[in-house]
Structure formats: structure tokens, C-alpha cells
Design brief:
The protein is an alpha+beta fold and 457 residues long. Helix content is 35%, strand content 23%.
């Protein structure tokens, strides 16, 4: 191989590696900073506008975000009347799967009898692994594997195409999901799930009191468990606390952290997920000397502060102002018809902007035929922001347009004479006339010949 070919091969390899190293960023907006999270996804719940996206469809370990699915199934399969029934038992055999793995706990004693409500708080606040196994054993009819099968089936039903669970708590690195898939789970649980109010109540709590007889360390006394979500804990969250954060779930393994949650401020609800955020990303720990690092929470703070400080929910279109005109046929009232948006299309827009930043693509006929009634749907307009479609709106007629009978008759007459039907008809008439002429000439010829014969006779 000569030097030129060798250089070309090396250049191709370097180019391919550099392309693979570039994070897949998408969305119409980009902040003025970079995050260290390997994956992230922020979407507006009302409009579906993606505010930020980075490797959102790349599968990564879910860690304790796995407990969101365990919580979802517990809520869906437990009626309100059963929430405080002590029919969940902490069998000793369940602890064998957790032995030697460390992980978070709610200090639940072996043999304790618990309610679904207590286990909800135990999973969502201190992220108790034993609580997840207790739930899985009961709902799986004595089989954790059966429960894991339910988890995966439910994930597929929610549209999570790149999510696989292998245990109910997330300790195994083979529990994988994507930022996009996890956002679908959080959106359902916070918006559409019938038990969403109870879920929100649990997520918003920063502590919960477990009853006496449940704890391992304090078997005869009640004790408190606390949340790992510093963004909702005003008393302990310090710089992490954000009033807009409504709830979510952390997940940590090795030297990184995940977080999936939802927030509401100024009437805007967002689902946010960051994954595989290295411990070094937590600048609050550096600046303020915190002993424990919360890197996923730190980068969630960065992203959501940026969203709420720079964007607003507003109408993209003014329903009282026409957006385009279209030619009108068969009318003497007007040559063109003004079209208005049927809806203002509430969407996310930068604070310092107006409708001029939007790009429009129209789906309209070349013209419209009178009569037209005010409010008739004539076509649609699709709006784009920085190349990303943000919505489609019907365009309606702004006024009535009557039809002129004379113009209509003349137009239709002209259309008839220029139509293929008329042309075919004319060809057939010409052929018929030619045939008639030929027959007439032939008959005339025979008639003349017959008279000449008679004269000779």
C-alpha cells in the first residue's frame, strides 16, 4: 500500500471516529452551555415541543429509575380501598437477591407486614430496593420473574421500544432504558394514570413516617424515611431546591446518576430526563462543599432553569389577522379570499420573539371556487421553529363570497368546449358526418347510374 492510500485510510478512520464522538443533539433550541450527561430529553407536555435532546434514544442503565415502573404497576393493580391493607409481607428469601449488593434501603425488617402506601413511599423517597422486591413478589403471585415480565409488557404498551427490565429495583446494569422512553413513563404517570394524584402526592413528599413494627433498626418505634430528590426538599435541598419541580426519581450506580421528573411553572409543564451524568458534573458540590454529589439533579437544574428563564407559552398565530390569500373563481365580489388561522396554536416560544421567527408551509389548492362561506376550511399551515415542526392549523375563509351565475356559466361552457369529452364528441361527429357523406355520395352515384340505365332502355 502506497503512502497516499495509507493516508486516505487513516483520514477515513479519524473522520468516522470523530462523527461517532459527536453527541446527537436535536430540538429547535440550544442552551449556551454543554451538559456532561450522556443522554437527555426535555419535552413540553401540552404541545409535544422538544426543548432539548441529546442521545435520547440510546439505551443506558436505568438504575433506580426502574422503580418508576414498579410503582406504576403497584398503583394500577391496587385499588384505593386496598392501599392501607397490610397484605404485603417482607419474606426473608427476598433479601437474598439483595445481599452483598449494597444499595438504598428503607430499613424494612424481614417478616414485616406492610401496606401498599408504605411501600410506595419507601420506593419513591429513599429508593428502597427491598420495597421493590416485596411489591414484585406479591403482585407477581410469588414470582419476581412474573412481575418483571409484567414490567416489560407494560413498558411496551406505553411505547417504550428500547427499554428492558430484569429486576424490580434497578440494581442490575441490564435494566436499560432511554431518556425518551423514560419520559413516556413519567408523562403517563403524571398526566394520564388514574392514580396520578396519589403518585404526585408521594413524589412531592420529602419525608414519610413508617409505623412501629416495620423497621429493622427501631422495631418498636415509628421512624422517618427521606427523599433522595433534593429538588423537592426545601429543608435539605439547599441550592438544588426548585419550586417548579413536582416530583421524579433518581437512580445511581457506579460513578453516575440518572434523574427523571416533571416540573410546572407559569402554566408550562415539562417532562425532563437526564441519564448517566458523571459525579464530576455536580458543581454545587464543588462550590459549596457538599459531601454527597447529585450530578443528575445539578444538570436538571441547569436545563430547567434555562427553559423557564428563556421561554414562554404563547399563541404562535393571531386568529384575527389573515396569514395569506388565495384566488377566487366565479365571483365578482373579490379576486382573492383572505384566510385566517382557525386556532392560535399555543406553543413554546422564546421570550424575546414574535411570530416573525416562525417559518410557514402552506397546504392549499391553487384557487377556490365560489360560493364560499365564512369559516369554511380551505387548507392548512404548518409552523416551524428553527426547522422543527411545532404544529399544523386549519386555514379558514375570512368572509362569504357569492357566485356570479353568468361567470359560472361562461366558465363551465368554456370548460366544456375545452374538455376531452367535447373533443371526443367532435371527432365522433366528424366521423359520423364523413360516413354520412360517403353513404350519401354512394347512394347518389347508384341513383344516377340507375337513371342512365333506364334512359337507354
Amino acid at each position: 500500500m502506497d503512502m497516499k492510500k495509507l493516508f486516505a485510510c487513516l483520514l477515513a478512520v479519524v473522520t468516522a471516529v470523530s462523527l461517532l464522538a459527536v453527541p446527537a443533539l436535536a430540538g429547535p433550541f440550544q442552551p449556551g452551555f454543554e451538559i456532561q450527561s450522556q443522554s437527555a430529553y426535555i419535552v413540553n407536555e401540552e404541545t409535544g415541543v422538544v426543548m432539548y435532546e441529546k442521545n435520547a434514544h440510546e439505551p443506558m442503565p436505568a438504575a433506580s429509575m426502574t422503580k418508576l415502573m414498579t410503582t406504576l404497576i403497584l398503583l394500577e393493580q391496587t385499588s384505593p380501598e386496598e392501599m392501607d391493607t397490610r397484605d404485603f409481607i417482607a419474606y426473608r428469601s427476598l433479601y437474598d437477591a439483595l445481599y452483598g449488593k449494597g444499595g438504598s434501603t428503607a430499613d424494612i425488617a424481614s417478616g414485616a407486614e406492610l401496606t401498599a402506601r408504605e411501600l410506595l413511599y419507601a420506593m419513591m423517597l429513599p429508593s428502597a430496593n427491598e420495597a421493590a422486591y416485596i411489591v414484585a413478589y406479591k403482585i407477581g403471585n410469588g414470582s419476581v420473574d412474573n412481575f418483571v415480565y409484567i414490567m416489560n409488557s407494560r413498558a411496551k404498551q406505553l411505547g417504550c421500544q428500547n427499554t428492558t427490565f430484569v429486576d424490580p429495583c434497578g440494581l442490575d446494569l441490564n435494566n436499560v432504558t432511554t431518556a425518551y422512553d423514560m419520559a413516556q413513563i413519567v408523562r403517563y404517570m403524571s398526566t394520564d394514570m388514574p392514580q396520578k394524584d396519589l403518585f404526585a402526592e408521594v413524589c412531592k413528599a420529602y419525608k414519610y413516617e413508617m409505623p412501629a413494627g416495620v423497621g429493622y433498626s427501631t422495631p418498636n418505634s415509628p421512624y422517618s424515611i427521606f427523599t433522595t430528590n433534593m429538588m423537592i426538599d426545601e429543608s435539605r435541598g439547599d441550592h438544588f431546591y426548585r419550586e417548579y419541580m413536582q416530583g421524579g426519581k433518581t437512580g445511581s450506580l457506579e460513578d453516575w446518576q440518572n434523574y427523571a421528573g416533571w416540573s410546572v411553572q407559569d402554566g408550562m409543564k415539562f417532562i425532563s430526563v437526564v441519564m448517566h451524568t458523571p459525579l464530576s458534573a455536580d458543581q454545587y458540590a464543588v462550590q459549596y462543599g457538599y459531601r454527597k454529589q447529585h450530578p443528575a439533579l445539578y444538570e436538571t437544574c441547569l436545563l430547567m432553569d434555562w427553559v423557564y428563564e428563556n421561554f414562554k407559552m404563547d399563541n404562535a398565530l393571531d386568529t384575527g389577522a389573515f396569514v395569506t390569500e388565495i384566488p377566487v373563481k366565479y365571483s365578482t365580489d373579490t379576486d382573492t379570499l383572505k384566510l385566517y388561522p382557525a386556532d392560535g396554536l399555543r406553543t413554546i416560544l422564546p421570550n424575546e420573539s414574535d411570530q416573525s421567527i416562525l417559518q410557514k408551509t402552506y397546504n392549499l389548492p391553487e384557487s377556490v371556487a365560489a360560493p364560499v362561506k365564512q369559516g369554511d376550511v380551505i387548507g392548512t399551515v404548518t409552523l416551524y421553529l428553527s426547522g422543527e415542526a411545532i404544529g399544523t392549523v386549519d386555514l379558514i375563509a375570512g368572509s362569504n363570497v357569492s357566485r356570479n351565475p353568468v361567470l359560472y356559466f361562461i366558465s363551465k361552457l368554456g370548460e366544456f368546449f375545452s374538455s376531452l369529452y367535447f373533443k371526443v364528441l367532435m371527432v365522433l361527429v366528424v366521423i359520423a358526418l364523413a360516413v354520412y357523406a360517403a353513404v350519401f355520395l354512394r347512394m347518389s352515384y347508384k341513383y344516377r347510374n340507375s337513371r342512365q340505365v333506364k334512359r337507354r332502355d
